[in-house]
Amino acid sequence: MTPKKPKGTRKGYTTGACTAAAARAAALGLFTGNVPEQIESLLPNGQRVTFQVHDGLANESHAHAVIIKDAGDDPDCTHGAHLTVDIRLLTDAINTVQLKAGDGVGTITMRGLGLDVGGPAINPVPRKNIEDNIREVASELLQTQGLEVTVSVPGGQAMAKKTLNDRLGIIDGISILGTTGIVHPYSTAAFRASVVQGVEVAANQGQQTVVLTTGGRTEKFTIRALTDLDPACFVQMGDFLGPALDSAQRVGIKQIIIGGMVGKLTKIAQGEVITHARRNPVNTQLLADIAAQAGADAAVCAAIAAGETARFAGECMHELGLADVFYKVLCSHVVATLEARYPGIFDYRILMCDFEGNKLVDYDK
């Protein structure tokens, strides 16, 4: 028997990865006439993983497949969801893959999410991953046809009530999410312990600096930006800033570099040391105040305060040409908040990137 992994460490798969696998299975079924019972699917991080396929069916013009989401040891409201894909042929749109929201997948109604208003709540990385998988198995078919890909999640409206989707202007269902395809057990005691251990390892190797990042994209971004640092310095903290800083204080680390995007950094600026999205929403009034400090007029500040995302605030400031100063002021608030909690303990540097991993600000107090 293969020994079971300790409770709290088993990884799972994102809604995006499961949807991409269902799309691949359905596309293969449309091309061959048979939806397989298992499908090896490409994840956004380049890995290939085999998924069980449910309810597969195909005929000459339509195919259907379902993947049941396994979230591993970080179950959320979408654990067990039936990620469902229906694909039909489009004779008037050769070599295109068109995504649609079916029942249980949300629709975007507000700016600030990097998605078209009125379009399906399928994030950019899953969109690309879905199309990549379809094109791997149905490239020949796409030479003469287009494909309409409808993503559905039965019960998605009820699941969405347990998320912040309504605050974000996503209505009638859940979002299809994921940047790597893998769900890491960030909210478990096991992951929290690994963050603390990572800081301790850096100190035990004589490092005076730790780089705390919120996820895979920010970690890659900081590694590219900080080539002079030893690999032991980089600790992916997830949502556990507080435990990471407490550990750094205990072991005598002197410099803290935080790599993050605007949403998580806003959470830190407002005093959150556990930054999971399910805990508290972003304080948009704080962002409006920061925008005012950066030179935005009252109307823009009011729009930011009435918004729901930090990303929307950033987009507004980009339009005004004030993004650089806005992000620097935000970073100064992050540092001020941390200094109030850990007075005189650390030197701070903040590296902020956008949603594609490109540098926005390097703030060195």
List the helices and strands and how they pair.
Layout: E1 12-13, H1 15-32, E2 38-42, E3 48-52, E4 54-58, E5 62-68, E6 82-90, E7 97-101, E8 104-105, E9 107-108, H2 124-142, E10 146-152, H3 156-160, E11 170-171, E12 173-174, E13 182-183, H4 189-204, E14 209-213, H5 216-225, E15 234-236, H6 241-251, E16 255-260, H7 262-269, H8 284-293, H9 298-306, H10 310-320, H11 323-341, E17 347-353, E18 359-364
Parallel strand pairs: 7-10, 8-12, 14-15, 14-16, 16-17
Antiparallel strand pairs: 1-13, 2-3, 4-5, 5-6, 6-10, 9-11, 17-18
General description of the model:
It is a single chain. This protein is α/β, with parallel strands linked by helices and 365 residues long. The chain has 2 domains: 12-183, CbiD-like (2-Layer Sandwich); 189-364, no CATH class. Helix content is 37%, strand content 22%. The protein is built from 11 helices and 18 strands. It has helices at residues 15-32, 124-142, 156-160, 189-204, 216-225, 241-251, 262-269, 284-293, 298-306, 310-320, 323-341, and strands at residues 12-13, 38-42, 48-52, 54-58, 62-68, 82-90, 97-101, 104-105, 107-108, 146-152, 170-171, 173-174, 182-183, 209-213, 234-236, 255-260, 347-353, 359-364. A 5-stranded mixed beta sheet has the order 4-5-6-10-7. A 5-stranded mixed beta sheet has the order 15-14-16-17-18, sandwiched between helices. It has a two-stranded antiparallel sheet with strand order 1-13. Strand 2 and strand 3 form a beta hairpin. Helix 7 (262-269) packs across helix 11 (323-341), helix 8 (284-293) runs antiparallel to helix 9 (298-306) and helix 10 (310-320) crosses helix 11. The longest helix is centred in the middle third of the chain and has 19 residues, at 124-142. It is globular and about 70 Å long.
